[in-house]
Amino acid sequence: MMDELRELYQEVILDHGKNPRNFRHPDDANREAKGENPMCGDRFMVYLKLKDGVVEDVAFQGRGCAISTASASMMTEVVKGKTEAEAKALFETFHDLCTKDDHEHGDHGPVDEDAMERLMVLSGVRQFPVRVKCATLAWHAMNAAIEGEDKASSE
Amino acid sequence: MDTQITLPASAAFDVERVRADFPILSRSVHERKGKPGKPLVYLDSAASAQKPRQVIDAMTRFLEEDYSNIHRGVHFLSQTATDQFEEARRKVARFLNAPSERNIVFTRSATEAFNLVAHSYGRTFLSEGDEIILSVMEHHANIVPWQLLQMDKGIRIRVVPVDEHGVLDLNAFEDLLSDRTKLVAMTHCSNVLGTVTPAKIIARMAHERGVPVLFDGSQAAVHGVVDVQDIDADFYIMTGHKLYGPTGTGVLYGKYDLLKKMPPFQGGGDMIESVSFEGTTFKAPPARFEAGTPAITEVIGLGVALDYMEKLGREAIAAHEHDLLQYATQQLSQIDGLRVYGTAPGKGPIISFTLEGVHPHDLGTIVDQYGVAVRVGRHCAEPLMDRFGVGATARASFALYNTRAEADALVESVIAVKEFFGA
Ligand SMILES: Cc1ncc(COP(=O)(O)O)c(C=O)c1O
Predict the structure, then answer these.
(1) Which of A92, B190, B374, B393 sees the fewest Cβ atoms within 10 Å?
(2) Is the ipTM of this complex over 0.90?
């Protein structure tokens, strides 16, 4: 029974949860969006520095559970340096990973396969439907920031 | 010589027999292929309580034998159903020691009852510049309806703070009371901290200035004996599903002279005397506030739930729950890094806590794997979370069917969380 828990809380997640990467507010950020989960009170700000259609920097601040913090942290690592289109493709593909069976995954355009490989550790949330929002919270905020909105619309 | 032996409440209260009345408590959770599940340890009754067989059976029996619409038929079943519905109203009146069943309005929930008062009383008797006083502990159900009124009428909402134990600051309350105060709306027991507020004193202080008082009894009525006449409450609100009754049932108690002055909340059938396009006249309370077909079966179920509590004895229930509260608090407090929010004397059986280095949401997921159901999050009381500077807490709440062994299971599962996270 605890296998599912280990699956959900893999070492990588616990590590990112405790020591989140890019946990800062960059001075030169030109986009920001808030992600909020009213159920558990998690709240993140995601900051982007967009230049010529490329995410030159991405960082976040706020407070959340291990899953949401780890997911936000990993998001900043894989999204940095991507074009807007690539970042959005990652968002859509990651969203499928957390919410859908393999055969239902959509085609969201070319996507960084290495990045998806790393994000696989978060796929354990599929067994914990109430935790899916945790895993996707910062991603929604990142996506909103790219679209020029100041907060992620809650699903 | 006095030979009478008084048993301690815990001995008089046979919790195993009580548990046998609640079918759901014997189930396991998280059964998986080939692997047995974990026995359910239900510590989330403050969100909603489980239902005893007596309530389930009474509702089934009513649906199978006596069901019909009420207040509107000359036929046999309609009369039978109406009698049972009105009997439930008398039971609620007795439960609260209301002077009469005329004081009891059935709503769909506590939330609807707050909206009823805010809409009907608030829009009639409050105007721009008037103030209402709440506490920082309120559930959103006792905040947002007043904010809607604020948008509409330009009233002002004043907030009584609590100290670090969660005790209401009566001096601040006194200072906030003024000629502008038109209503006090306050929790009788916090769903997060467990704090029981001194309702009688609050009512007296408000009444000295001629201000009516509404209490949110959603939690208080579950854990103690409530006497609305002794408190001298002007309004008192409860919600059926926390009282071991079904969902879809709420109760608004109101002093009759206040109810009489209030216009309807919703319009529809059952609340009118006569309807014409020239003008419609309304029935007297409580019917005036009960537009449309109510939750007939559920209200009857609620009446049976109150009977159930009375039969066990509300003081015996309170004593049992208090024992669990003390035991669980003591056991939890031995865990390093665990902090309990809400340490007011005389509090209800609700323990909100955090564990250093672990987010409550993660804690909730992990203890759930051990079969332990707790609530995590903001508990519909965001201002209170801000007051204590926490984004969220975990909350274990105890009910008449919980045991010390379940408190142990909670403690063990929290220790497992600590080990899991190396916190
Ligand atoms: C203190 C308090 N007030 C009001 C409510 C609202 O009750 P309901 O959702 O049944 O309307 C609750 C329950 O969630 C509560 O705990």
Answers:
(1) A92
(2) no
